[in-house]
Amino acid sequence: MAQQQDDTFVTRAERQKCWDARDGFFACLTENKIRSLRKPEARTAVSEKCKEASDVLHQSCRQAWVDHFMRLRERELGMVEFKKRIADNTDTVERAPDANFTKVSRS
Q1: Residue 42 lies in a domain
Q2: pTM, whole model, 2 decimals?
Q3: Residue 71 to residues 5, 11, 32: CA-CA distances in angstroms?
């Protein structure tokens, strides 16, 4: 199936095919420890190691869906890493009571 046009409806079978392609692509990214596709070296790694899964994803899903899936993956992985740092006490969030205010001294 070629990439779909945005003005057509997507059937349940087509959605399932897209989700399966997404899961396969994300499994390849995870297996190769590729977190984000924003860096050029990550895009190179994808083209070398996950090209087939990437091609299936882009053929099975609308581009808007692919973009959405990638944003969600980055957000979810970022949240997992943040929670791990908090749990390990390697990241602290401290806020002074008056952190939002600046004391102004007048002469």
Answers
A1: yes
A2: 0.69
A3: 21, 23, 19
Query: Per-residue pLDDT tens for 60-106?
Result: 999 999 999 999 998 998 888 888 888 887 655 555 555 555 555 55
Question: Domain count of the chain?
Answer: 1
68 occurs within a structural domain: yes
In a domain, 83, yes or no: yes
Domain housing 73: 12-87
Instruction: For residue 93, give the 3-state DSSP assignment.
Output: coil
pLDDT digits (tens, 9 = 90+) for 24-34: 999 999 999 88
Q: Under a CB-based contact definition with an 8 Å cutoff, are residues 3 and 62 in contact? A: yes
DSSP class of residue 4? P
